[in-house]
Amino acid sequence: MTEYEEPPDLDDILAAQLSDFAPSVRGGSSAPIGAHVVDWRTLKDAQAPAAWNSLRAWVEWFTIRYRISESVVPACWFKHGQLVEELSALHTAHTAAFDPSDAGFGPIGWHERLSLAIPRLSKAYSGGCARGHDEPKPRAWVNVVDEDEWNVWTSQAHANGGRPPTSSPTEGKDAE
Q1: What SS3 state is found at 108?
Q2: pLDDT beyond 50 at 60
Q3: Looking at residue 30, what is its pLDDT?
Q4: Is the pTM of this model over 0.90?
Q5: CA 136 → CA 71, 122, 125, 129, 144, distances in Å?
Q6: What sign for the dihedral angle of Cα 60, 62, 64, 70?
Q7: Cβ neighbours around 127 below 10 Å, total
């Protein structure tokens, strides 16, 4: 007969794994596994080169791998804010989906998300840059809203169609 080594004691294993466990500590990162979310609206200049270079490398790989045409993602994609946001979100989702810690459902989830994102990508870029970048005309909010009208409007909730709210569902029914 072959002699086997005595298996380790489960209590010893659990005690070692839980030695740093602190039930009152609930902190931790909410960042996606293996991914770094970029908030382009608040991105600092010092962080910008790394974020842009990472996204560019991924976009170039993505457009080749998935045969995304220039009519969907043009060469000047980085100058189109809505495309940047969509592509950045796809990049983050892709990175998380293919993280080694994924249980195996990430890749199919990625492709499901991609099928939903392709129409949004097509809508995000409406063409116009076939002969070089055509600067989009951004919407502006400068001097568009009448501030007095805004202040009057926002002084009410407008949830009751202009009628004063009632304190109970039956109150005010006799008046009708």
Answers
A1: helix
A2: yes
A3: 47
A4: no
A5: 15, 15, 10, 10, 19
A6: negative
A7: 11
- Give the mean pLDDT of 82-105: 90
Alpha carbon distance 79, 135 (integer Å): 8
Exposed / middle / buried, residue 147 (Cβ in 10 Å: 0-12, 13-18, 19+): exposed
Q: What is the pLDDT of residues 20-37, one digit of tens each?
A: 666 666 555 544 455 678
Instruction: Tell whether the model's pLDDT for residue 103 goes beyond 90.
Output: no
CA 42, 43, 45: angle at the middle one, nearest 5? 130
* 81 C-beta neighbours (distance < 10 Å), count: 13
Other Cβ atoms closer than 10 A to 2: 3
Q: How far apart are CA 79 and CA 75, in angstroms?
A: 9
Q: Which residue has the tokens 């029914």?
A: 173
Contacts 24+ apart (CB under 8 A), 111-118: 114/66, 114/90, 117/86, 117/89, 117/90, 118/72
Contact 40, 88 (CB under 8 A): yes
Q: Are 106 and 97 in contact (CB under 8 A)?
A: yes
pLDDT given for residue 4 in this prediction: 67
